[in-house]
Task: inverse folding
């Protein structure tokens, strides 16, 4: 029997499904409207649709991998569980105090985010450990029981436990967790020594609180999906995309949902990584533009860049991103996210300036052109007015667009108030959105010490190919890659990654005071945890591998850089090599290094990876070099100062080696690609559009 893998990516506007035939590599796609009030409905609708359209039985599917923003949305929208916070006596105000930094120094209206746990549910318990993990004061178990009773009276259903210095010795947290399980068994307990065993008390506490706050929400969501799938005859392994680009089981995700806060966006970067690897591009900039947001990510030397300084709910703004969200200390693909998607609303501010986003029309009511009651103009409406989108072929004609409604929305809300021509105003909307997205690309490249001109831009998402060529032009990027079915590329990314678990430990010592044998034992202990986690997931020994990292900094610095640790036994020579690698990493990240300065190893970590077989790119079956336009329509381009007759191509009829000279429009069911005047697209053997300036083809 033919077997299949299924990826489901839930976005703000659409839920995408990608089905891969394991024997042939054939990819099938489907899109359904997202259901923000209950994302599980959109998920199940997507599965029902694609299995029905492709005539695939439930028992033929071996993997179902899900990318979701349920955890993030719960935090952003405030729909988290009633959560309690227990910490060392004297530190109950940790969440209120937070950090003494501001995202914009002179913004007098800035207000700190309200803690996810109010002060009346943040309680201290007598106990104390020293920084080295030694016990200074024993845990007061009677006080802990009293605190648990108080939280029960407050209606708490989840508890975050974060004692001082428990990263060095979890004895008090483990004992407290066992007591809470006895006296308050209906509550879900999250221990900081399990979730984020690293130093920096507030970051560790924030990470644990977020895990606790979303855990009941995620557990109910995934539990409902699993129940529905099992009831429908699906016996597939159920996996969830992590923020780090790996996947883990529904069970693991229900216990540590903080590891999946950027689940959906991470899938897009993994798809771009896989495409780059398959086509021989090791340096890739990922650009994913959907209906609600646009995301930029960096893939260097074939690996996504991972950050451990991420904030839930923070979007890039000119004033900076720090202190705009809730910090977490889990591995997250280094993404910059902005409120610029196809549904982002254009508006005129009180000073008479045209603005775009961050508010979005979302899936309901959607852009004005959807005809579902929306009256505010969006980026999708602007693209439609300029002729870049065919109103009769949006989603393959399934969602017809109303051009007159789009024109009316832009005229009354933007062009009229500003005294502009309708089409000039529509182009202004796109220019403003493009400027914001170019800023996001600079944040993940130039600001990280990376020259974007050395990279290939991979553009995807339902709206990404409409803008990718212009973004590449503005950034000086030579080649833009538009994959087949770009509107569902993130769902494809769910199926090209591996099982993954991360295990950190704090070291906190200068390299000249490190005992290599002691550090080797630490790595061995973490590796044992990793192998045990993969064994629970059913990963065979030959499919398992371990990667070692060290977070390092110059003594006195506040933040660290991750450095890869060589395999084998950790000894003096490996330690010297590690220090050299850190100096090189610091030079690349900041433009300088200081080899004479002492270096600290802050944390070490082991990533346990269970390799899952990946599909291969399917070659085109259309005749080589075939590229006959299916028609022509006027499209507005700033480069030509107005409308230009533009050939329209059906992507499914274009063959390998075809050259499409701009201006040109390439249409497919889930997206539309714009090729600018002066540029051309070459079609490779797998149907990818490789866009570059005309003379470079």
Result:
């Amino acid at each position: 029997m033919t077997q299949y893998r299924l990826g489901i990516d839930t976005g703000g506007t659409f839920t995408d499904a990608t089905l891969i035939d394991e024997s042939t590599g054939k990819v099938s796609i489907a899109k359904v409207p997202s259901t923000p009030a209950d994302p599980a409905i959109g998920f199940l609708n997507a599965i029902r649709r694609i299995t029905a359209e492709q005539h695939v039985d439930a028992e033929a599917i071996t993997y179902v991998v899900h990318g979701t923003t349920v955890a993030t949305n719960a935090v952003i929208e405030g729909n988290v569980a009633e959560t309690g916070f227990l910490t060392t006596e004297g530190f109950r105000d940790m969440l209120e105090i937070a950090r003494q930094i501001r995202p914009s120094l002179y913004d007098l209206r800035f207000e700190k985010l309200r803690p996810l746990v109010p002060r009346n549910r943040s309680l201290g318990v007598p106990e104390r450990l020293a920084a080295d993990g030694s016990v200074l004061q024993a845990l007061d178990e009677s006080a802990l029981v009293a605190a648990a009773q108080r939280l029960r009276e407050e209606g708490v259903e989840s508890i975050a436990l974060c004692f001082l210095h428990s990263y060095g010795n979890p004895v008090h947290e483990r004992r407290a967790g066992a007591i809470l399980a006895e006296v308050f068994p209906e509550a879900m307990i999250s221990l900081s020594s399990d979730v984020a065993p690293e130093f920096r008390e507030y970051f560790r506490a924030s990470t644990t609180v977020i895990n606790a706050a979303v855990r009941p929400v995620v557990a109910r969501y995934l539990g409902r999906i699993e129940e529905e799938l099992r009831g429908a005859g699906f016996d597939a392994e159920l996996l969830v995309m992590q923020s780090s680009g790996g996947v883990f089981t529904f069970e693991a995700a229900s216990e540590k949902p903080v590891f999946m806060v950027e689940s959906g966006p991470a899938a897009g970067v993994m798809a771009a990584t896989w495409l780059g690897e398959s086509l021989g591009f090791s340096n890739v900039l990922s650009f994913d533009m959907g209906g609600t947001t646009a995301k930029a990510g960096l893939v260097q030397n074939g690996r996504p860049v991972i950050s451990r300084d991420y904030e839930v709910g923070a979007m890039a703004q000119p004033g900076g991103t720090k202190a705009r969200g809730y910090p977490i200390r889990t591995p997250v693909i280094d993404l910059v996210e902005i409120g610029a998607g196809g549904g982002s609303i254009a508006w005129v501010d009180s000073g008479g300036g045209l603005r775009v986003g961050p508010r979005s029309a979302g899936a309901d009511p959607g852009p004005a052109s959807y005809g579902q009651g929306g009256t505010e103009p969006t980026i999708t409406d602007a693209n439609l007015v300029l002729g870049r989108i065919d109103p009769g072929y949006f989603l393959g004609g399934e969602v017809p667009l109303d051009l007159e409604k789009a024109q009316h929305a832009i005229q009354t809300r933007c062009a009229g108030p500003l005294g502009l021509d309708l089409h000039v105003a529509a182009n202004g909307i796109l220019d403003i959105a493009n400027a914001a997205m170019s800023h996001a690309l600079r944040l993940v490249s130039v600001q990280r010490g990376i020259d974007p001109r050395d990279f290939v831009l991979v553009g995807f998402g339902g709206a990404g190919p409409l803008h990718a060529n212009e973004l590449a032009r503005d950034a000086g990027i030579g080649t833009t890659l538009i994959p087949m079915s770009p509107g569902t590329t993130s769902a494809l990314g769910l199926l090209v990654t591996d099982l993954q678990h991360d295990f950190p430990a704090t070291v906190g010592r200068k390299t000249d005071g490190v005992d290599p044998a002691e550090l080797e034992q630490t790595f061995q202990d973490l590796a044992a945890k990793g192998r045990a986690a993969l064994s629970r997931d059913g990963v065979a020994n030959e499919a398992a591998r371990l990667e070692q990292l060290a977070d390092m900094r110059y003594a006195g610095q506040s933040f660290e850089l991750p450095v890869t640790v060589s395999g084998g036994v950790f000894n003096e020579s490996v330690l010297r090599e590690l220090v050299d690698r850190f100096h090189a990493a610091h030079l690349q990240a900041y433009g300088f290094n200081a080899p004479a300065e002492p270096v600290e190893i802050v944390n070490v970590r082991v990533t346990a990876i269970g390799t899952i077989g990946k599909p291969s790119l399917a070659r085109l079956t259309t005749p080589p070099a075939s590229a006959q336009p299916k028609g022509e329509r006027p499209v507005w381009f700033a480069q030509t100062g107005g409308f230009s007759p533009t050939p329209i191509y059906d992507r499914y009829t274009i063959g390998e080696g075809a050259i499409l000279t701009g201006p040109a429009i390439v249409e497919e069911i889930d997206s539309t690609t714009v090729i600018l005047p002066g540029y051309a697209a070459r079609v490779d053997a797998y149907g990818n559009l490789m866009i570059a300036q005309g003379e470079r083809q």
User: Anything to note?
Assistant: The first helix runs from residue 39 to 53. The chain has a mean pLDDT of 90.
